[in-house]
Amino acid sequence: MPHSDAAPIGGSTDAAFGPVRDAFVENFLHRGELGASLCVVADGVVVVDLWGGWCDRERRSRWQADTLVNVFSVGKAIAALCVARLVGQGHLGFDDPLSVLWPEFAARDKSAITVRQLLSHQGGLPAIRQELPENSIFDARRMTAILADEAPWWEPGTAHGYHVNTFGFLVGELVRRASGRSLGTVVANEIAGPLGADFFIGVPTGDLGRVAEFVGMAESPGPWSSEGKDDGEVMVHHAYFNPPTLSGMGVINSTAWRTAELPSTNAHASGRGIARLYEAMVHAGMSGTTRVTEAAPLAEAVREEVNGPDLILGRPSRFGLGFQLTQPERPLGPNASSFGHFGAGGSLGFCDPTAMVSFGYAINTMGPRWQNPRNRALIQACYECL
Predict the structure, then answer these.
(1) CA angle, 119 as apex, 118 and 125 as ends, to 5°?
(2) What is the model's pLDDT at position 17?
(3) At a CB cut-off of 8 Å and minimum separation 6, what does 106 contact?
(4) How far apart are CA 296 and CA 221, in angstroms?
(5) What are 224-260's pLDDT values in tens digits?
(6) 3-state secondary structure of 342
(7) Strands 357-363 and 348-352, how do they pair?
(8) pLDDT tens, residue by residue, 58-80
(9) Which CATH superfamily includes the segment(s) 68-323?
(10) Is the pTM of this model over 0.70?
(11) Domain boundaries in the chain?
């Protein structure tokens, strides 16, 4: 197996995409990569399919072609794809109030919040006020019941703020009520499974042996008190750390975390699996003979819905309906049509319908959350080769 001085590298690269392989190797040599996989599809052809490095911090287990890893918010876009699929099937509409399918959600003046507002992070429910114990994250019914009874932090539709962790519980419950199946089941049976994509929201027990350790996340958010904090400060803190394990701290490598269905944060995938999903999306929801969504709701989901100051991130963000859209501060290549979703640490899935490129990148070390030099180098090299 060919390897760099820093890590074993496997896979293949089309001759024209040699600079992408070079950037992949450079990530190990100079940008702190431990283990990763990368897949790029251009005009329907796999031009990059690489993996390398290590599955564990001790560097005892080599990354394999089928290694899975937690890709965090990369899963949000696939949750949004589930909703687009259900819209195309006539089970719900983007402008339906959530309370039509979820009557309990109407509590505390939320009866008018629409699916569109939820998916575009305008619903005002990025956090839970009531402080919760750590194990609450593994009780989806409890979390959704609490969210249904939560008052919005701002008037829905008047602003947007990234629903870092609550997005998955809210969208998951919407999918369950519209389809009668859990979101993870829809992904497995109706999207990833038919596409042959290694992408899971809730890893099957038989696949746990190929999940890489995730390295670099703190074990605890540290001591914090709401005393003396204003409502905005409490909202931002609780969006990430209420319950304390909400973002994965202390549980990220546990079996409970890996097998749970936490669509905001615990998608597990390979770069190849991510790219296969986006290859269907770059072709308007169709890959071969498999249609994962109708074209019209997908097209609506990747149009700009919000763009500007984000009340949680404290910087500009740009969203369609559950999909992050390219923006100058965080580009997904040079073309305006690109859409996808980043994951904490640097994992990424996106596609560019203008260039007909699909991109999947999965890693196991926590890097900068906003502007990650590893994925930026890979994106830049990819477009230089087109």
Answers:
(1) 35
(2) 98
(3) 97, 99
(4) 42
(5) 998 999 999 999 999 999 999 999 999 999 999 999 9
(6) strand
(7) antiparallel
(8) 999 999 999 999 999 999 999 99
(9) DD-peptidase/beta-lactamase superfamily (3.40.710.10)
(10) yes
(11) 68-323
